[in-house]
Specification:
This protein is 38% helix and 12% strand. By secondary structure, it is of the alpha/beta class. The longest helix is centred in the last third of the chain and has 30 residues, at 317-346.
């Protein structure tokens, strides 16, 4: 049973007459003020693992051990020293064959950050071009990327930092709107790539349907060197007992004659230690050779001791699955609680919708158009830090001022509940204020 029962039958706010809407607004303002008087400080800005989740992997702090030979790889190589393949330990690469859908020889293990690998791939393409391309991307008159939105702000920051124009693409609940993607990619040779978070997308939680993966792999593109930046950050981050299944993009691209199209990225940042895990890159043989050729100029190789630690801890795909079940037992109640509170406090008013994701790290809250920034500001006044409204769109501009990303993972469950309550109360105040103003009435909030 929800701890926030409905107090009375609900009517959409837009259907209330002026006097009823004024009364509702006054009540919402009073409830928001009472919540703010509690002087809370709650952080829901980022999808960070909680301390309880990090504790699941504390054995890493004692690995690989200090006994004789503890630092030796499977082939006897000394992981304390320079050696070997830039792609990393074969046994470390083998951990991720199922996750990224590639054989060991087409997988590279970086240091801790998949975002760094994506950044480097962009820079290599700008400076040197990619296999199948006639020239470095920087020689193009204008470089563009397709950006399913709302999406991951750090992807957008890479593009903005290098002057790559961003073209928003709407999402459908089953992935990007492929009619839009296909039309744009076929018409503009300056569009060189597309950002994709294909499973449990950040922040909408959707997984690309098989048809979407097939169409992305098969579609004609005006740029012969078009690339899918396939950031499969949440490949094993399931929240319920019916995990979503994602088609293998590398296999689909190969079947459709575009073997070099997909660059696949993943990491253990939300599996083991955030910021101290392993980053993963997988692609075609030609793309792997291209990436390693340029990578060799900046690094002799990644931290192989950390790779060895992860091999000893995770062991294999079954070991990863067992660890992720433990994560799920911690995370799933937090997501459920947010949904319960939003339903209890917002349901029936017609001012918001939100997803119940099967996996990933975020809840996507869509509010009444024009109310997102105001809701975030009011939540801040109530002691709840949220990611700024618009951050999930290119250039930080949500054209509808609608989307708010909710990150329930880090706070304890009781704080997650408080934060969800505060967000809901802030939204009710923002939405009723907006409606009063649109009717030419004073809303009363500053």
């Amino acid at each position: 049973m929800s701890p926030y029962p409905e107090r009375e039958p609900r009517s959409p706010l837009a259907t209330l007459d002026d006097d009823a809407l004024r009364r509702f607004h006054a009540d919402a303002a009073a409830r928001h003020a009472a919540f703010a008087d509690r002087r809370l400080s709650l952080d829901m800005t980022r999808g960070k693992p909680s301390p309880e989740q990090l504790d699941l992997c504390n054995a890493l702090l004692e690995l690989p051990g200090s006994g004789q030979g503890a630092w030796q790889a499977a082939d006897g190589a000394d992981c304390r020293n320079y050696f070997g393949d830039l792609r990393g330990l074969p046994e470390a690469r083998a951990l991720f064959t199922g996750m990224v859908g590639a054989p060991v020889e087409q997988i590279l293990i970086g240091d801790n950050s998949s975002l760094a690998l994506m950044h480097d791939a962009i820079v290599h393409a700008l400076l040197h071009g990619v296999p199948g391309g006639a020239a470095p991307w920087r020689h193009a008159a204008s470089i563009g990327f397709l950006c399913p939105s709302p999406g991951y702000d750090r992807h957008f920051a890479i593009c903005e930092g290098y002057g790559i124009r961003m073209i928003p693409v709407p999402l459908t609940g089953r992935g990007p709107d492929m009619a839009v993607v296909e039309r744009l990619a076929a018409a503009d040779a300056g569009i060189k790539g597309m950002w994709c978070v294909p499973q449990y997308s950040n922040p909408t939680g959707e997984t690309y349907a098989d048809e979407v993966v097939e169409r992305l792999a098969a579609m004609p593109t005006a740029a012969a060197d078009f690339r899918l930046f396939w950031d499969n950050a949440y490949a094993v981050h399931h929240l319920d007992g019916a995990p979503a299944r994602l088609a293998n993009v590398l296999e689909a691209c190969r079947r459709h004659g575009h073997a070099d199209r997909a660059l696949v990225f993943a990491s253990t940042s939300k599996i083991t230690f955030a910021g101290a895990g392993l980053a993963v890159f997988a692609s075609s043989p030609d793309n792997m050779a291209w990436f390693m050729r340029h990578m060799a100029r900046r690094s002799i190789g990644p931290d192989k001791l950390n790779q060895l630690r992860h091999v000893r801890l995770l062991r294999d795909a079954d070991g990863i699955a067992a660890l992720m079940q433990a994560h799920r037992r911690i995370l799933a109640p937090k997501f459920r609680r947010v949904g319960e509170i939003f339903t209890a406090l917002l349901g029936g008013y017609g001012v918001a919708s939100w997803n119940a994701p099967q996996g990933g790290y975020f809840i996507s809250l869509d509010v009444a158009d024009g109310a997102a920034a105001r809701t975030v500001a009011l939540a801040g006044q109530a002691g709840i830090a949220l990611v700024p409204a618009g951050r999930t769109f290119p250039y930080g501009r949500d054209p509808h001022d609608r989307n708010i990303r909710i990150a329930p993972s880090f706070p304890p469950l009781d704080q997650v509940a408080l934060a969800a309550e505060g967000v809901a109360l802030s939204l009710l105040l923002a939405a009723s204020d907006l409606l009063l103003r649109r009717r030419g009435l004073a809303g009363g909030t500053s």
